[in-house]
Amino acid sequence: MANSTMVTEFILLGSPNGWNMSFLYFTIFPLTYLGTLLGNLLIVTVTTADQNLNTPMYFFLRNLSILDMCFISITVPNACVNYLTGNRAISVAGCATQIFLVIFCGCDELLFLSIMAWDRYVAICQPLQYPIIMNPQFCVRMTLASLLSGLVYAGVHTGNTFQLSFCQSNVVHQFFCDVPSLLRLSCSDTTSNMVLLLVSIIIIGGGSFGIIIMSYIHIFSTVLKVHNKAPGKAFSTCTPHILVVSVFLSSITGVYLRPSATSDTLQGMLLSACYTMVPPFLNPLIYSLRNKQVKEAVRRVIQRQMFSRK
After folding, report:
1. Spatial CA neighbour of 200 closest among 110, 74, 261
2. C-alpha dihedral, 25 to 31 to 32 to 36, nearest 10°
């Protein structure tokens, strides 16, 4: 490695060569970010202010909304500012921080979605046991366990990535720092890193997807057996949830396991946008804004605020 040089910063290449991404950075990204913040902030406010939503389902939903606001805030605002100012440099420490936070939020996103699917399974398939199983202590422990798992998972991948030597280039073909882009810049052997990524996706992603699918299979089976309950309500919530999780996992898989030859394509950037922006944006629509209880809670909170001002 005599010709290698120490990398002190990375350059985020916000668009593939030859592509004008102004519409994306000045319209799609800001509107998606604003919609995500407003939708999730509304959920956090309502589930906190209204005592009728003091249930395990809305406890996890509030945590998911907070996580979603953090998730999209890690990448989108910085990418828009970089594109606007033309200053796309990011320090090694800043890049490591961004990678750590993206992996942490992505991991916890899957864990929270899995817990919420299992919560619905217990509520519908074991209603008499629901207060015993989903007690407040258990909910807090599950949340803390998810956060701790995300911290460990993100720490392992971030540390493993920045143990490598970077000498080929400092240009990251992405609008934020991610592990696959840095592995392509390394002059070290990245075989162990790729194996770890593959195993992680199979265990974390496959395990979470399996829990969600099995939970909904049991939910659909139970709902269809009870003749006095219409299955439409269960399908209207479960199906979009499965679709969002599918988009999330398929885009992550496409980003982290795609060949290096396609690293600077528009497809790679759009896949990254899918897993960092689509779930945080759609989760409020799926879980709350289409939910009758949440709509009624929003109405009650607004009425209380109006009466308090009089």
Report:
1. 110
2. 140
